[in-house]
Fold:
Amino acid sequence: MIRFLWFLLLCTSSTAFAQNSLGNLTVEKIMRDPKWMGSSPGNVGWSPDSKYLYFNWNPENAPGDSLYYITKDNRTPVKATYQQRQEMRAANRRVYNAKRNAYVYATDGDIFYTNIATGKTMRIVETTETEYSPQFSFNDSKIVYTRSQNLYAWDIGTGQTTQLTRIQTGSAGNKNNKEKSDSDNEQEKWLRNDQLAYFEVLRDRKEAKDAREAYAKALPKEKELRQIGIGDKFLQNLDISYDGRFISYRLFKSAQGNKGTIVPSYVTESGFTTDIPARTKVGELQGSSELFVYDRQNDSLYTLSADSLPGIKDLPDYVKDYPAQLAERTKKAANRSVDFASAIWSPDGNYLLTDIRSKDNKDRWLAVWNAGTGEFKPMNRQRDEAWIGGPGSYNRGWINNETAWFQSEASGYSHIYSLNARTGTVKAITSGNYEIQDADLSADKKYFHYTSNEVHPGEKHFYRLPVAGGKAERLTKMEGSNVVFLSPDEKTMAILYSYSNKPTELYLQDAAASKTAMQVTGKAQSPEFRSYAWRDPEVTSFKARDGADVYARIYKPTTPDPHKPAVIFVHGAGYLQNAHKWWSSYFREYMFHNLLADAGYYVMDIDYRGSAGYGRDWRTGIYRHMGGKDLTDNEDAAAYLVKNFGVDKNRIGVYGGSYGGFITLMGMFTSPDVFAAGAALRPVTDWANYNHGYTSNILNEPFTDSLAYRRSSPYYFAEGLKGNLLICHGMVDVNVHFQDAVKLSQRLIELHKDNWELAGYPMEDHGFIEPSSWTDEYKRIFKLFETVLKK
Structure:
């Protein structure tokens, strides 16, 4: 086992720190350009005929990845030609017809049609305008696409193009109102009559004009397209039913009056400070959306209203903590604002399945518009007093003409359900204490293909299941993560596979449980990377103080330092987990944890409350109190290390980035006797500074739920700092703004705290890019732990 040189522990000079190493493993090596590790494949895709498998790869350590391909018969990767790269770029956007013997796609602003049987591709439009979103309609006889926010149809048989809609900004003109030629001004009427009375030529010309207009009016006319005005709103999700009769679209109106933020950039080519326009803050005004259906046959326009949705007036439970607000909102009894998230036509065009979300994200409704009756009927309501979410929550589609499918956390875990559009009957297709993380229908709509963590929360496997439910067939066997890309003919699986200490490689396997996956690539680990025995961290679980099982990864030192120090790493948020059996997206941190273990530390990172992979209750465990159960889970991890490995309870450090930086601050401020040292990287210090989409789900809004923000923001607890704190933050961070670090710094200054430091990185955003910045940051983290936890 590689050992540290003991004098490294005494280094105070940054130069000496940079030069001395942990054998061949150094902070500099870990944090430099990751290409030294090797090259993993990515961006996998199949050719339409399932004969070629394409992927990005960089086995030559070039400045960037190149496109490679293999075939089923020749699995030696070959670099793709320019023509193949263009074809693959287009193939990623293909849309098939019902028989799957043809497909369309848009590229470079034009539309292309491919007949699979003949292998011929033709460009059906070539204009200076941009055409996009092609699809098959009119029972596969025409290709419908969008141009300048209107739909056009190209007839496959005749080549004729027809405009289907006449949508325009502003108000719609009324074709029944003839523009007036006469003024209401009496003087002008008299003058016109006087002219006609005394000029014979004028009378003759007027009589001829009137005769021409009368004749033209008597002629049979072609039906005009209805003019639909959308005012100052944005047209979105323009779609057409498969039979070509109905058109659905969404109108969105942006909220006015929101104030944006700016991020100053100090190090620039010009030498002047420039401002980067950035997002607004949580609590911003929200836009509104409406959903419409246009019946081309009957020239009828339907507005799909949310007024009939069950519970549309229901208030969230948290309002009970604010009696005055509760009384005011109860008296007002207004409908909550909603967002029409999506609308999908049934295969025969008889039903439109809509997914509607309340703006406060406490409710999700599935509703169906019936083309036969014109009725818009709610079918399913999902209520979550925290917030609607979970993996696959936007996955949905049609199994047949009247049966739709969707994913939901109704049972507490994300699973697949069916919905009968005629009867409203909802049926669970899958069930159990595990998550369906992604799902889709087979081409013939007889099977679901899905990825789940049924085997273990830290594993991903691929399954095939009949649409009626029953026993699922597990198609992958390798322990770890199996991310599957199924070929168009659904006979072969391309698998991006990784394990805890093995970066991602590409495998190929026939789509059957009895078959074995064969490795295709083998360059993810360079000889230099292989020269070190990277640990396979133990994935285990422990009991939290409330009895919940918390999953964790533990890195154990071969020779523990006599002081028995430990470090807890806190992963970032969104919806993420890190206590798993695959190659982590935190690969730098993984390698740093190996370095720490070699230096005698026990290292642990956990999937605290709010992490992905463990169902609804775990996901929403941080609702209205970030820094609550998510922090106590990390405190319980510290107690676990003390009890099971003899770690000194006074020598435990904590670090993490983004949400991990936030938890580090909360730990250092509110649990100062648990953590002796902490490194908070790009942390949120005041949640009122963060964005709306993420924060309002968890903490509601500052002006409606101030209690949640007060107990969740480290800014308010800075007086509790006892241990040594390092704050590192990119100064051009457009996600968590550097303002957060500045505000906390001023707070610590005013509190007369002197055991902290702030390292600002003038040219770094939220995720660092420059190896020099990564190196500087992690040298500071390591020095902090060495200085404090081993003193």
